[in-house]
Amino acid sequence: MIKNQKPRLKTKRVKYEDDQQLVMLAKKDNRAFSLIYERYFERIYLFVYKRVRDEAIAGDVTQDAMLKAMMALPKYEDRGAPFSSWLFRIASNEVNLHFRKAKKMIQVAVQEKDVQTIMEEIEIKPTEDEQSKLIRLLGDMKPAQTEIIEMRFFMHYSFKEIADFYNISEASAKMRVYRILEKLKNSSDKQ
Q1: Looking at domain 19-102, which CATH architecture does it have?
Q2: What pLDDT was estimated at residue 118?
């Protein structure tokens, strides 16, 4: 071995089941971040793609998110939430940054059955007029509120997954969702 050359990272033979083991390894040797990258890239990409609806942009945003994660990894602290929620928050921030830079609105693919599920949840008659009104109201919400509704009703995240994403309790996730739904119902009643 040449002097001052780091030894090769021998991680391909070892299967790391625990994310925290991967994080500890990557904190010691940033080349080990490739293991985190391989484990999460596809999931992060799909999350981003559902928000930007463009393969090239999704690839770029995902790469930016993974690069930011790698650069921020030394500061990462395990606070009880899954490591993946930390990665998804970074990806979400990168998506929002992309839209701010492009001065575009976030577009969400909405399926009729998902809108009907929201309508049932807030006890609105499932008419075409009410459905259009609800879609308009969803478009007028703050991005943070839209993101939670999108995760729950369009991406079909469980309350536990939403809680992990925001690093909050499951009860807090439920409370946030139902407060937003109540706001939608009140706004719908007023129109």
Answers
A1: Orthogonal Bundle (1.10)
A2: 80
